[in-house]
């Protein structure tokens, strides 16, 4: 829950920085520096999660797992397709 709140605060802060750069023009050099830091943190943070081979920071993996199935029974049932386990 706290991570979502911090993410919203970071998003609002980023939008304020972009608005300042484009329209307000107060402390533009500092705003561009902070904006570039945002970009670098997002870029390297995202690559770190993908390079480890798994999902980073409690995210679910986008690849679904194959369902477990059983083969054909001894008595000839399920001859067309395997039965899906629950």
Question: What does this entry look like structurally?
Answer:
- There is one protein chain.
- The chain is mainly alpha-helical.
- The protein has a domain at 27-53.
- 55% of the residues lie in helices and 5% in strands.
- The chain contains two helices and two strands; from the N terminus they run ααββ.
- The chain has helices at 2-24, 28-51, and strands at residues 69-70, 83-84.
- Strands 1-2 form a two-stranded antiparallel sheet.
- Helix 1 packs across helix 2 (28-51).
- The longest helix has 24 residues, at 28-51.
- It is elongated and about 65 Å long.
- It starts with a helix and ends with a strand.
Structural classification: mainly alpha
- What's the number of helices? 2
Low-confidence stretches: none
Biggest sheet, in brief?
A: 2 strands, antiparallel
Helical coverage, percent range: 40-55%
Shape: elongated
Compressed to H and E, one letter per element, the order equals HHEE
CA radius of gyration: 24 Å
Keywords:
86 residues; mainly alpha; two-stranded antiparallel sheet; elongated
List the helices and strands and how they pair.
Blueprint: H1 2-24, H2 28-51, E1 69-70, E2 83-84
Antiparallel strand pairs: 1-2
């Amino acid at each position: 829950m706290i991570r979502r709140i911090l993410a919203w605060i970071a998003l609002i802060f980023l939008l304020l920085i972009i608005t300042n750069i484009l329209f307000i023009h107060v402390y533009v050099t500092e705003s561009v520096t902070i904006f570039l830091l945002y970009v670098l943190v997002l870029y390297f943070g995202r690559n770190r999660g993908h390079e480890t081979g798994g999902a980073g920071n409690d995210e679910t993996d986008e690849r679904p797992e194959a369902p477990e199935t059983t083969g054909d029974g001894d008595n000839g049932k399920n001859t067309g397709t395997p039965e899906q386990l629950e």
